[in-house]
Amino acid sequence: MDTGRKTMNLSNHPPQVEVDQYMPTFVPGGVGGGETYARKLFQALDELAEVSVHAVVTEGASGFAPDAQERVISGVKLDSSVWGRLRGVAGVLVRGRKVTRLLRPSAVTFTPFTIPVLPKRKLGKKLVMTVHDLQHRELPELFSLPEKLWRSLMYEHPARRADHIITDSEYSKKSIVKHLGVDESRVTAIPLGADVSGFTPNLAEREAFVYYPARGWKHKNHSRLIEAMKIVREERPEMRLVLTGGALDAIGDVPTWVDVKGLVTFEEVTQLLQKASVLAFPSLFEGFGLPPLEAMASGCPVAASNAASIPEVCGDAAVYFDPRNTEEMAEAILAAIDDRDALVRKGLERAASFPWALCAERHVQVFREVLTC
């Protein structure tokens, strides 16, 4: 009888690794690509017979995992603002002993997000922390003082004390070693995955719009993209711009040819990627950046920023531009439209090279290594 549970032949597999995915600062819908990472990685870890994975979340984020694999910090809810997160963190810290009781003593405590500063000895057998990037160190002018303090407390301090740090790219690894002063042997770069099974390539004709899925954060560079699109429209006046993501009210008033859809469902994102002429990705900074890979998996040409880790992710499957140069950005968008066939071919190959299963396996390698130290 098939019980639907994972099975493991102990004679053929190494001992099972217990992992508590500890997420006391997780706000559903409030962390962009980081949420995709946490959800997809949890699912991929759960599919490995050699792993027993649980999730530890606050009451406001309950439902992240199946009941049998979820431990809830009761009485704590957060929102995505800095002060909302601080209030939530205070609630977690006040409940410190109750929180640590939710963690299995034999498990690796793995946190894919920022974490409250609790004594490391209370966070389980070993602490492995993902630091996606140190954008506040690379682009400090884009952050307010409260945001910098938040990142210092929740990124930097715990990361320095972690047994190991995981990050998304070699670019971010170098940044972490440089700014946090940790030995490079304590940092492992593991590329994220791209779930190509959720995206169907559309090789037929596409509609006259450029698509950009991103929250309205300053580094996402919406204002320069809109200026670049004005140049694009001089040659292709039919071309529109479609924006999706949270906090887009921060970008202010937009021209009539810009369609601001806000937060949309996954199904709507896949449909937009199947229809768009180009995915534009003008971000000033990314520790990784999933949307270009999702576009490639959908057969959508990509015009991308040459900043930070983005070229490392996109390889030769995108047209690059300086994200601070609107004319160059416009030229790249037009070039991506004209060079569609070659970009689609390269993009499909590139997206397929980032499976979540491989991402999960490499995480397990790190967990095993820290347990033997």
Automatic annotation (TrEMBL):
Taxonomy, superkingdom: Bacteria
Domain Glycosyltransferase subfamily 4-like N-terminal intervals: 31-196
Keywords carried by this UniProt record: Glycosyltransferase, Transferase
Residues spanning the signal sequence: none
Organism this protein belongs to: Leucobacter albus
InterPro entries: Glyco_trans_1, Glyco_trans_4-like_N
Name by which UniProt lists this protein: Glycosyltransferase family 4 protein
CDD domains assigned to the protein according to its UniProt record, in alphabetical order: GT4_MtfB-like (cd03809)
